[in-house]
Amino acid sequence: MADLHAALVDALGLRIVRGDYPPGSRIDVDALEPEFRVSKTAIREALRVIREKGLIDSWPKRGTIVTSRDHWKLLDGDVILWRREARRDDDRLLAELSQLRDVIEPAAARLAAEFRDDADIEALRTAFAAFESAGRNASRLAEADRDFHLTLLQATHNELMVRLDVVVIHALDARNRIQHHPGADWLDPVPDHKAVLDAVAAGDPVAAERAMKHAIRESDLDLRGGEPPFDAPEPVESPAAD
User: Fold this and answer.
1) What is the pLDDT of residues 30-79, one digit of tens each?
2) Which among 215, 223, 225 is positioned nearest to 102, based on CA atoms?
3) SS3 65
4) Dihedrals φ, ψ of 22, to 5°?
């Protein structure tokens, strides 16, 4: 059931981002049930998720309407991936992801090197150990990568910087889903992360910032050369009914 729900969300979200339903257009919700051969409940649940991402809104008597792009939660991981799969603004998306990380994370590394304490260093080492041991396991690597970067944010001891974890999570998750997928070839990220860890542990803000900038540049190379092919969405079928 969870797979069906995720497939419905993906199929409908991609349609909107791709422009199959232009902004301001009405989605014929009743027609989706026979098209996808799913229950009204499944359709409603999928549309609820898509509404939370800002792609649609609903009004009595008007129905479900596709919102304009300025309402979309563009930092949402699914929206980022739908943009990528739609293949409509590839270069812009990759550039924006890189620019976003390049603004936040080197500054976070610098602050972490200045304000980290012993507990932070230990937490970073633990996160790095998981990252290092993940090897080519894409799912383990993505989880360990997220933990390392979030631990780095926490090591800044800057409440406002820590609140940027939402931005970093979405950027990392989308990057990892594009870049670290089974069968892909990517540069070994361990040395770059080790350099960040060493600089932070040594209390060297300049080296920490420089190491993070280098890590992001290496990631950019992977993004441009290691993304997965995009296949047509699988048909969504279910015998479920209300």
Assistant:
1) 999 999 999 999 999 999 999 999 999 998 888 999 999 999 998 887 89
2) 215
3) strand
4) -65, 155
